[in-house]
Fold these 3 entries.
Entry 1:
Amino acid sequence: MVRAWPCIHSGRAAIMEGNIAVILPIVILMGGALVIYVLTRALRLSNKIEALLAILVLAGALAALLNLVQPLNDLANINDLFYGSRQPGGILFFPNIVGVYIGVIACFICLFICAYSGEYLSRDPRFLLFYPMILLTIAGLLSMFFAADLFNLFLMAELTTITGSALIAFRFTKEEAVKAGFKYLVMSSLGTMTMMLGIYFIYRGTGRLYLTEIASMTNDFTRIGAACFLVGFSIKAGVVPLHTWVPDVYHHAPSAVSGLFAGITSKSMLFIMPMIALQLGMTAQELGLYLMVFASFNMLVGVIRMLTQQQLRRFLSYSSIAQTGYLMFTLGIGYYYQLPSAYAAGLYLLSIIAFMKCLAFLTAGNYEYRFGTGNINQLMGANRLVPLNAFAFSTALAGLSGIPLLAGFTGKWLIFTAALTAGDAFAIAGLVIFLVCTVIGSIGYLPMLVKQYQRSRANLKSLEKNQLTVTSTLWIGVPVVVLTLIVIVTGVFPTPWINLIENVVSLVAAV
């Protein structure tokens, strides 16, 4: 369906034209956020009703995203798949198959998060803003993938900064949560300011904001701009040494928010980064080298720091830093050696990390919700009281550590084969660091797994006495069970998912 109408921009009419289906997922998410806020405020809806409304909006956005798959397969007419204004200063959206794929994963993750929060936020009277902020965060993320002009990209990056800060500091009565939210606001704003500096250099060198036009006019100014965008996205992705916000944010934000950020939001920046940098004059080899070098720092810092952690969510925070390194290493191999199989491995790794990390944070949050503590030493024997949660948390940790027959093992095997395929000394050196970090990480995961099942009568009595709630409802149970099944099934039967991702990568190569 094609629509065209005038809008006022820079004192004159700019024609918005193209296929409305391109922006329909974004419109559904943003419009849904507004409608949910207004309805909940006007009708004083309960937390559970608001969660249901958010789930319906996410389902609509998911359907709209899937509706873009067929047009994106039509390579002959793919250049007609856009929406916006091509006039100077206009905004323009071009969908791409990677953005659609990651958008689908993000919507699925948010379905689980919103369902979980229907119970998890029942003790928080400020639930009104939570679900609209979740929807706006995903809308901003999706818009960053679809944005074809730098100014629109900057605005959407700012949107994710603002909504992310609000979600992290959601429990504003807790001082640590406010500090974490402020730290994220400062660091993420520094990232977007660096992007704005990059836009200045790019516009000075080309006088253009559209990426397709800039790609044919690259010069020293655009390459400086590419470096600025690289730094900006690295901050938002938590790349060492720009990772300092990660531990506090993932530890003190609501568990559902930590699952969203650690699972999909932050790591998605590693896929937006090359879409921008390569069009600004950076070569694939330069980008691949950057990713591979800094991947080693992420892997080492993450696994070493996680060994000393006792708080579940802080442990998972450093684990996330290491997994960002694994993902960077895989993508770095793909770009440096021009290996589509490595890029496919990166997409697969992003997908399974999203589900495993979401499961890990939701189950860790369930411990806090149930017992009021996230310290593993105080959760000894917790499996006696919450066996399902203990099993699900163990499944997530085992998957993240790379135990065979779980999703994480397949992801790490794909990294291993990609590095061997590259074959040169640089890739092998990175592979050695990866294998060492995998072993060290497994040592770190072991006590977190075992202590839930260790018998301690005194600790068990303390847990029984201090339970904040005795039963968990389906709102928490269903997301945890479904995520657990996904981690197990995709580990036992990874081939269909890998084939799907290879089809996505083949479309990227064909465009």
Entry 2:
Amino acid sequence: MVNEVFVDDKKIKDILIYISGMKHAEQIRMMFLCSHNGMRSINFCYLQVKDIYTENLNVKDVICLDYDKNKGKNKCSYYLNGQMKKEFGEYLKYLQRKWGARLTPETYIFTSQKQNKPFARSSISRLFASIYRKFSIHGASHLGRHIFVSKLVNAGVNICIVQKLANHKNISTTQHYFNANEQMLANAVENVKI
């Protein structure tokens, strides 16, 4: 289902500022950024150090996840842009402070108050819904995927590429994700010249 409200970059920045004042801000910010880079909550709630970082603790270019960390028992890949690589680089510093010598490749990236136990997807969904509500947006953790797909389509990225980036089996699923907003319609007619 397509969200009726298109969340622009300014509102996303406002949300990130709001998150920075929350308890556990580092984790919440990084989960929010994962969502807004196309990841499902099932993907990012089970991320481990080995999924994001190389043995030398450099950020990988692509996060490759096996079926146990994805919907539908399929493997998936998420490509990281420069901003996300930088964010994960900064997040590593937080993880090193938090875990110290106990940080291992098996350590979960996002943990609940119970040490090294991943967040429950339902908790993530409730958390995101409460954050969005503060900004009069109806949505939860999956809204970030909708925004990710809409941004790619609005930028003119081929729908087949968007499908692959969203890890959708069918292009029809991808088509349900984006909003045909007024800016998109205005940009489209500008391409028609006589």
Entry 3:
Amino acid sequence: MADKRLLENAQQVKIIEEQIEYTHRLLENKRILVGRWQNDVMQKVHKEDLLVLEQENLDMERKMVDWCKENQRLLGIFQAMKDREVEMIFAAERCLQRNRRARVCALSGIR
């Protein structure tokens, strides 16, 4: 009985060893395929394209920062123009009132 058990265990060990060897061969083949893919011309072209796109993104980011700065500068100018517009409206209104008073005084002969 013990000999039969030892024989079964030996057969199972042999099967497991074959599976381990198969797994090692499979992994080595996968490593070779991955290595070829990583060093493939298409992969290098893809990497170069990614680098170009990354550079374009950095350029666009710089442009956006510049545009934001310019927009802030223009916003400041616009705010100043709005303030001046309000001042001009009040100044024009004061001039209009002075002209009306001057006409009334001129018509009535009062100085």
